[in-house]
Structure formats: C-alpha cells, structure tokens
Amino acid sequence: MGRAIPHTSSRATVLDVIRAAGTISRAGLASATGLTAATISNVVRGLLADELVTEVGRAESTGGKPRVLLRLVPSSRYAVGVHLDAGGTTYALTDLTGAVVSRMAHVGTREEDPEEVPARMVRQVDALVDGAGVDRERLLGIGLVTAAGVPAPVSLSAQDLERATGLSVVTGDDATASALGEYWSGEAGGASVLAAVYMGATIGAGVLVDGIPYRGAHGNAGDLGHVCLDVDGPECRCGARGCLEAIAGPEAIVAAARADERTAGAAGLVGRERSSVVGGFTAVVRAARSGDPTARALVDRSARYTAVAVRTLVGIVDPDLVVLTGVGQAVAGETYLPAVRRELGTAFAGRGGGPVRVRLSTFADTAPAIGAAAMVLRSRLTPLRTPGLRLPDDLSESGPVPVH
Ligand SMILES: [Zn+2]
Fold first, then answer.
1. For residue 244, how far is its CA from the centre of ligand 1 (angstroms)?
2. Backbone angles phi, psi at 159, to 5 degrees
C-alpha cells in the first residue's frame, strides 16, 4: 500500500464517502479518498459482506467496461437518538443513512421520579422500534444527549440506560448532536465547516469540520452561550459576567418577562412558576407575536445579542454554513434568522470568500435527537476518531465495536 492508513480508517472514510455521495463507483471512491484501488476493493468487500453496502446499477464510463455503483443499504442498521432536557424527551429512530424512520416526543420530566426514567425510556424506545417494525438485531445502539454545562433534569447515566435496554449507549451534548443532525440529514449541503447554533434551554454551538465534531481538549468547544458581550454585564451561572446567556438567553428572557406584570400576564406565565425554560420562552415568543411590546423587545434584543455572539463564532471558526437550530429556533427562528444574517452581512461584507450562508433548520426541534442517533452510527461504524478507543485491525471480521 502506498499510504500508511490503518484499515479502520479506510473503512470509516469509504463509508462516509458512500453516504455523502449516495451512489459511487469503486474508481470514484479511489479518487475521492486517495486510497489505492486494492485498498478500496478490500474495504468494499468487507462492507458488502456486512451488508452495509450493496451494488446497484452501472454507470456509463467512457470506453472500457461499465462501472458498478455502490450505495448504503439504509435498512441494514438502525440507531436510536434520545434527547433529554428539562422540557421532556425526544426520540428519533434513524436508518443507516441517518434518515428518520420514526420519531416521538414525551413532554415533561420535572415531576418524574428519577428512578422511573430508565424504565420509562425502555418502554418508549421499545414502542418506537416496534412501531416502526424494525428488527432489534439491526439496532446499533442508543445515543443520549443532554445540555452541556447544566445539571441534567434527571440523573441518568449511559450505564443505567445500557442496563435497562441491553443496548450500547453513547452520550454527547445537545449542541454538537444538533450539528451532526443537520449534517447527517443531508441538509447541510456539503459544508466543509458547519456551525450549528443551538438554542434550547441554553445556547451552544456545535462545529463540524468535514462532518467531524470539533470538541476541543475537554469537550467544551462551542460554548457560545458564555461568549462575553458586556464586561460589566449581569452575573452568569458560569461565574463570569455579561455572557450571552445571562443577557439574552432563554432563561434571562423568561425572567425578564416574569418581572413585567403585564407581559407575564400576556404570556400566561403567572402561576406557572414551575414550567420549563423552553415552555416559558415559547410563551414569551407567542406574546411577542400577539403584540405585547415588552415581549417583542425582549425577543428582538435576544436576537441581536445572539447575532453578535454568532459573529464572534464566525470570525473565529470561519464556517461556510451557519444553521440555527434547537427548539428555541423552531419557535423564534423567524426573528433570529434575519438578525444573524444582517449582523454577518454587515460585519463580514469585505471579507474574502463571499457571504457566510445562514439557514434555519427545517427540523430544529428534533435535530439533537437525530444527531444523537448519528453519534451512534459514527461511533459504531466509523469509530476511528473516537478518542481513547482501541480497535481491532479489521472491523469487518470482528464486527462493530461497542463504545461505552
Ligand atoms: Zn456564562
């Protein structure tokens, strides 16, 4: 072999290229990956044997014999994504390509006995999988995502869920997962650097470079909610001052709306002190839409501050696509999208490379769950970049490796 790339890396790369391309020939794979024809042939043989990939049709080639095309077998493997936050639990069942086969939402976790949560999740995962008629043998595992940097609504470890379901579980944060959800859904349009700006109960960002999450040394990269926008600003729960979240995050907006008697009434927040941050934020956005001036001003201000924080992020990571996602953006994207576009248009008008594309996710409220399932697909099928993982030399003989 001309290149010193271990076999697992070749397999990961080939799978990813086939997924991205839809259909591709072996020759196409060789030129897209830089791997030798012999390596491609070996890797593809393993993928065919595992029934992850199938041969379809033939592409016309210029002279010579026609080339066989390869594509993923979507129904060969499935993954479950679970997004757990204070407002509830969202589930997505995806096939091997990351396409959503089925989804489900469970509202409310606050009043629930933490001991009951794993059992409830088992029932719901079963319902999701059985309802879709998916053979459990084909399930690769469960991805579980929660908000980074805030206490989980219930204490649920990967081990608890593994024990309860008998499936391997990978964990992650909602912002990174939502970026993966956008990328795997195919809506990220082949972005080489994708920044997903996530707004749920908190604000974060997931950055992918060629589809691979950039997590930083401690998994803390993309902490957009704690970008400082005012050095003398209000204290933040992180201990610093003037963070985006403290000034204009969903929790700050809900608190400000509650502090205004008329707006609290208009938003229906009175007597609902225990409603989740997302529930409260949704109520304030509705009040803004129905003409409450204070609610309108709060949401507009949050959009402006968020846009400035996104400008900082864009200045640092230079993405070619920014996607606004998360349930907060599902609810209020119509206000945040123009604000972010305006800010980036003004700030980077003179910069090389043209304008940064900014899009609103078309499935903002389920992106973290879809991304959680994508985490499973990545870690079980293309595990090379999972840190600290020791892999056998040839996955096609040993089968996928469970990640804990
Ligand atoms: Zn902070």
1. 7
2. -65, -40
